[in-house]
Amino acid sequence: MTFEDMEHELRRRLMVLPPAARAELIHVLRLPDLDRVKRIGESWRHPETRMFGELLIDLEEEPAAKAVVWGLLRDMKRKEPQHLRRNRQRLVLIRRRAPSRTESG
Fold first, then answer.
1. How many domains does the chain have?
2. Is pTM beyond 0.70 here?
């Protein structure tokens, strides 16, 4: 697979994700290694998020793909309408304020 083919395939996979899922992808990619592995497993285990989990697994296995995804996400964010950016920022703020499962008991 050429670099251009890889970029095209990753762009296609990212385009089918809604903006909130792309924001979640950024969040998961920024997690420390063990936390990221846990989230990948959680995503892959559930049929409704398996596609997301498979994307995360592919990115873990191929560092070049992860770098390409960061660039694609940056480009998509730049082209995203302003009202969607505000909604994504609210989602991130809500996630940061919510207690984790271990904190809540």
1. 1
2. no
Q: Is 42 inside any structural domain? A: yes
Which structural domain range is residue 34 located in?
Answer: 3-96
Alpha-carbon span 93 to 63, nearest angstrom: 28
**CA dihedral angle for residue 40, residue 38, residue 90, residue 46, rounded to 10 degrees:** 50
Q: To 5 degrees, how large is the angle CA 25–CA 27–CA 19?
A: 50
- For tokens 């660039």, what's the residue? 71
Q: Please give the Cα distance from 105 to 19 (Å, whole number).
A: 31
H or E segment at 77?
A: helix 63-79
Radius of gyration of the chain (CA): 14
Q: Which amino acid is at 91?
A: L
Residue 19 falls inside a structural domain: yes
More confident residue, 35 or 103: 35
Whether residue 105 is contained in a domain is answered as: no
d(CA 89, CA 103): 23
